[in-house]
Amino acid sequence: MSVGPEREQSVLSALDQQAPTTLYWSLTLLATIGGFLFGYDTAGIGSALNFIPYDLSGFALGYLVAGTSVGAAVGALLAGPLTDRFGRKSLLIADAGIYTIGALLCAVAWHAWVLISARTLIGLAIGADSAIATAYIAEYAPRRQRGSLSLIQQWMITVGILVSYLVALVVLKAMPGNAYGLDWRLIFGLGALPAAVGLVLRARMPESPRWLLEKGRYRDVQRALGQLGIEVTVEQVERSARTLAPREPRGRDGRPRTPWTAGVRRALVVICVFFTFQQITGINVPLYYGPHLLAPLFHGGGSKVDAAIAGVEATAIMSAVNVGATYFGFKYIDRAGRRPMSMGGFSGMAVSALVAAAGLNFLTGTAKIVLVMIGLNLFIASFAIGVGGTGWLIQGETFPTEVRGSAAAIGATVNWLANFALVMVFPVWQGAIGLAWVLVCFSALCLLAVAFVAAFLPETKHLSVDEIIHIYEAKMLRKT
């Protein structure tokens, strides 16, 4: 489509009103490959951990499982200022290259510390991608489909988890005698394939038109919009830039103020707290520790390999539920809105955690297995529908263009640090009070999350990314 004189107030308005074509969906899948790789890596360590032949204990073992989250926190923090300076596209390309190298190093690791270092490298790429992907999507997505497009990030995470468990099952069942040799290396190394595809295809992606406009690169804006199916002239882009310039916040003396206004800071706090609740309410316990926790329920005897495969099979079922349930979040987020979806998701998690806890505490045998699996699957489904994708969505859509990368990076860093804290603390927590009571604690935290969302998270559906921050600014003005 072309932008005519009646729409010259801003060429970016065409992005908000554009119908999402196949190009938009393909572009979003490319942008969220990092989500797939995060899911694949999360499940891969759970499947391979029992077969890694190196003598690991204490800190080294815990770091092997959770160290990717530390790398991700660092990667997200570094990506923020880099993406605001150099653009979204260049960082997404670099991330795919780093992950490819990290996955290959995991596959050929000749020493425990090589493996640990490689997983930290993978974490850097995953964290950087998590800081950039939804911000990039929000900057080209039409306002009425922005939620659906951004939730592809969460869907790709769930698909990565499922694919990893399926790969592990195929590899372990096909070559059970090589579980301690080739198998675990294949589970890690195959993650390099989608990363390499992303490395090649991301080079063809358009840069964010909003970022280019903010940087004054008008001819590049024209080129990027053309790739997105919107025809404009350089003159139209320049007029749009002049129209948008007066919106820059200014103090009483007329000089530009910092883009980190009171409203931006409030939005950042809200999103960081949301991300913290997203993690500490327990979603990664069944996904990280699923094979370890469920194997005793499904397998009473046999070899260690058989027990591990049984745990992987049970967790693969939950991963399939995760993928399927994410579809409903994808379908309804732009209809129902961010607030009701997240409040419903946390409420469902609270109830489901209590169901699983009841099964663990009060039942035995088959009845115990059935109720625990029902509870855990509903727990995961509730998260997938209302919580997981909502966090990434509000992270990407909320902030002004000039600080969107840095602010989104801080939110992603908080997410990864909370992830790391839960994964590291859970074994001690479980050992102290038992899994059932840990689930009860998760239920209580979910109810606190519902109260937080009700009090502090505004509804942003159908607003453009340029309008959302004004909701937070208005709240701060009412306080002064």
Nearest-integer average pLDDT: 86
Q: Give the radius of gyration.
A: 23 Å
**Helix-strand pattern:** HHHHHHHHHHHHHHHHHHHHHH
Give the uncertain stretches in residue-range form: 4-8
> What structural class should be given to the helix and strand makeup?
mainly alpha
- Bulk shape: globular
- Please, how many helices? 22
- How large a portion of the residues is in β-strands, by DSSP E? under 5%
Description of the molecule:
- The protein has 480 residues and is an all-alpha fold.
- It has 22 helices and no strands.
- Helix 14 packs parallel to helix 20.
- It is globular, with a radius of gyration of 23 Å.
- About 1% of the residues have low confidence.
Features:
480 residues, mainly alpha, 79% helix
Short description:
With 480 residues, the chain is mostly helical. 79% of the residues lie in helices and 0% in strands.
Secondary-structure map:
Blueprint: H1 12-17, H2 22-31, H3 33-48, H4 59-86, H5 88-108, H6 112-138, H7 146-150, H8 152-174, H9 179-189, H10 192-202, H11 209-214, H12 218-227, H13 234-244, H14 262-280, H15 284-298, H16 304-336, H17 338-362, H18 365-386, H19 388-397, H20 401-433, H21 435-456, H22 465-479
Helix pairs in contact: 3-6, 3-8, 3-9, 3-15, 4-5, 4-6, 4-20, 5-6, 5-9, 5-10, 6-19, 6-20, 8-9, 8-16, 14-19, 14-20, 14-21, 14-22, 15-16, 16-17, 16-18, 17-18, 17-21, 19-20, 20-21
